[in-house]
Amino acid sequence: MNRSHKIWTAWLVVVAITAMAVTHVAMAAAPNASPPGTDAIAPATPAPAGDATAAAEPTEPATDAQAPVAAPDTRALDEEIQSIKKDVVDLNRDLFVLEEELLFPANTQVAVFLSMDVGEFFALDTVELRVDDKQVTKYLYTPREAEALLKGGVQRLYLGNLRVGNHELVALFTGKGPNGQDYSRGAQLKFEKAVGAKYLELKISDRQRKRQPEFEIKDWE
Amino acid sequence: MVIAAVQNRCNSLFLLAAALLGTAWTAAAAEPAYRLLGKAAPDFALRATSGTNFRLSEYRGDVVAVTFWGSRCGTCGAQLSALSRMVDTYQSAGLAALAVNVDDDQAAAASFAVAHPVSFPMLLDPAKAVARQYRVDNLPLLLLIDRSGAIRYVHRNHRSGSDAQYLQQIRVLLDE
Prior knowledge:
The complex is a heterodimer of chains A (221) and B (176). Chain A is built from four helices and nine strands, in the order αβααβββαβββββ. Chain A has 221 residues and is of the alpha+beta class. In chain A, a hairpin with a 4-residue loop joins β8 and β9 (212-220). In chain A, α2 (49-56) runs antiparallel to α3. The longest helix of chain A has 37 residues, at 67-103. Mean pLDDT of chain A is 78; it is low at 28-36 and 44-65. By secondary structure, chain B is an alpha/beta fold. Chain B folds into two domains: 1-30; 33-175, 3-Layer(aba) Sandwich (Glutaredoxin), CATH 3.40.30.10. Helices cover 41% and strands 19% of the residues of chain B. Chain B has a seven-stranded mixed β-sheet with strand order 2-1-5-4-3-6-7. In chain B, β1 and β2 form a beta hairpin. The longest helix of chain B has 29 residues, at 2-30. The mean pLDDT of chain B is 85. The interface between A and B is large, with 35 and 41 residues.
């Protein structure tokens, strides 16, 4: 009798462990009860301010006597949330500035900007930048980005560090030329990097007289 | 006699439990979790078979289905057709799709794209830079990206009945 009791107890323990293990493994493999071959995560979106406000409100309709009391609390909570949101945005901006200052100190910083004027004779596709014969960036432009440049936008194409001394910047532009054919041109600039940040601008403009695009690199003094 | 029978039954159950445990463990270990799940989808820009360039970040605010495919993949065509139907239906609700081809031979990709017309861009990634970024380990690989740009669902294969799962998950993301 005693032995039988022990066997049944052992059997129950094994069943319980099995059930727990299977449940744990199933939950680990598919948090949203997805089938094999499918991974998923639960929504991780934080509740917006409105939701928090709504959650704070009573689920049942408030009586006339309760309404004036509940309203000020909700407003205060909403203001507090907005204030915290603003602090987070400010903090994020400060961190971004600090990160840039640390990664690209002013005395070694080099930034290259791109601007485009008119664009009648050239449709931009890619720009490749080489500093001292080493490719530092290659950017593929979507029609929306090219349109933004044509509307007067200036893009910071590259931000990096260079030591003091003489350097060479080569920019290779590809796109569609005056007759809609593939068009590729380069521009080159030898510049001296002194102590302090260096800003260079790639400028694409139309040369109306020759009916050709013009590519130049300017040094922002 | 009775004790022996109970003991036998117990042994059988123990073996069954062990087998169950082993099977579950193997199933979990066989398919490792997708590392980018829940993280922000890395941005990329690629040229489409049409010649236009597309950038993922320009779809921020929409639910985006990104699928990686190859012309020699058997189930890729079926998945692309299913996605095309869904995009046709839910485009106005904010659903977009991008299909990234990982073939070395761009001509093969282009002819496959002609044979399987879809309503979204077919992008070319012959250098496989984007495929490496996204840790593509199987074709087709479908990622469902939410409106904030996070990868929320991953499908490493396409089977019969997968369409219904895609639809259900896309609806969840569109409703957020």
